[in-house]
Structure formats: C-alpha cells, structure tokens
Design brief:
Length: 332
Amino acid sequence: MGVANQFFGFGVVFGTHGIGAVFIDGLRHESQMSHYRNASTYDASHRVYDFFTTFELQSVSVAFFHDTDGRSKSFHLVALIGSERHINHYHRTFHAAYHGFGMIDHLVECDRKCCHPADTYYVIGSTVGPHPYPDMVARLQSVISEEIKKQLKEQEGREYPDYLMACVGGGSNAAGTIYHYIDDERVQIVLAEAGGKGIDTGFSAATIQLGKMGIIHGAKTLVIQNEDGQIEEPYSISAGLDYPGIGPMHANLAKQQRALVLAINDDEAIRAAFELTRLEGIIPALESAHALGALDKMRFKPTDIVVLTVSGRGDKDIETYLKESGTRTSLQ
C-alpha cells in the first residue's frame, strides 16, 4: 500500500456488497492516489472504516443524507475512525417531505463532485451510471454466482438452482447473483423491486413495472417519469431500492422476459423480514427483505432448489424495524 496515500477521488457505495466493487476499482487505480477521499454511503460507519484502513487514508469525508440532525449512531461512529462529518441538506427542494434522502441523492452528489476530473476519480458500487460502470460492477459482483455454483455443487451435486432470487434497486447484488446463470435457461431468475405503498399509489420505486425508456445518470434504461419526461420521485421504505431508474442489465432482462419481476410492497417486505428474524435469527437489510417478500408470491415444487441472496444485514434498518414492530404491536 505504499502508493495508497496518494489516492484521490469520490466513491459512492450502495450496500455491503457494493464496497467490494469500489475496493477493486480503487485498487486498480492506486497509482493515482492522493491523501483525501470523499465517500457517499448509506450506513457510513463500517464502510468508511474499510476505506480508511485499506487505502491508508489521511482523511475521509462522509456525507450523511438521511441523518439530518446528526443523532444517529453512524454519524458519531465515523468520528471514532477520524472521519470528517457532514450533514447534507442540499436536496430538500427535490425530495418530498414524506421520506428521507435516497439512492438518487447519492448519485447526484457523486456526479457533482466528479465534475472536477482534475482531482477526482469516480468509482461506484451499483450497476447504474454511465458505461463502463454497470458492466464493470456486474463483473466484479459475479463472485456471488461463482460462490453459488461452488456451494451448490458441494451440497446438491449440481451447479445450478431452479430459481435465483434477489432484490433490485440499482441492481448490483442481483447482477452478481445471476451473472453466471443468465444464459442458463434451466434457471428461473426472479427479481424483487420496491413496490412501496403499492404501484398504483404514486408512492413506489417499482421501476420495471412503472418505468419508460429514458436517460438517467448517463445510462439508457427504464425510468419512472411523467409525460414530459421529467423524473418522478420514487418511494420505498428501503433507501437502497429508492431509485427511479434500474440497472440497464436488469431492464434488458425484463424486456426479454428472461427475468420474472415482482413488485414487493413495504408491508410485505417488513413481514418477511420479521419472519426470517424469528425463524433463523438473521436480521436482513430492508433491501433483502423485498426478495424474501417475493417468496410468498411463488409456487415451488418440493424438489425445487431455490437460492435467494440476502444482500446485507439489517443493522442500519433497526430503527425502522423497531418502529414497524411497535406499530404492529399497537394494532394487535
């Protein structure tokens, strides 16, 4: 890591799996490194620590989009690793009052930072944005499907499942899950997107269900937009799925009918998350809970092999889960 102290740039990270793509891309450009790195992330604490230690950085700046008053644990934890803390209020006129900042805000802020290429290198952890990032991130995340093949061979005696299931927002974890199975017609691909309060309510992030062809953040894909082509405000209880676009890879799979796409509403995702926690002791991220919520919409045979990617843990979503748990208790 001798040259790592010269890393410069701005990284935007989505989900625990997203950090892997950002790491590899960052390492690929070690020779360009500087002393300052700016990271935009949802659950900042442990991901910024990864940046800090791996690249031997002198300082890290963290932009907080959801935490508007600085009271969350992440806001204080990043201080323990020496990070500079910022609370971003910049985008309030764009975002509706009914929910906080989401994935689109991180990309917008990242794009703004990258308007200064003299001191910035752009890395991203989701399959969105301009080429080659969607393809590059999908390739980097393909380690997920490599591991699926390996474990299935050991456990089931064959390398392919009957069903592969994953949540999609930008789509990096889903891209990694399905990468080595896209051309294998024996495998049914099932993608779960954020239905929000329902696809007919106006409070949804179900891009494949509601979107039309458009351009967003440098990519041609499906976009939730109005009749004038203006991007509509998405909504999801999950920040990582709260995006008005979708990775071009997934838009194409849906168009070709290679993937079955299901819109999972907030209440369905929450119910599935509580069930997994109760039965297995695993608290899933709200993003992953949407994939779990899709299980009830499927009809499997007893002999079917189903692989579902739980793309992250639910530490960052504990406050939401506690709130929903209290609401449900009061209604009973």
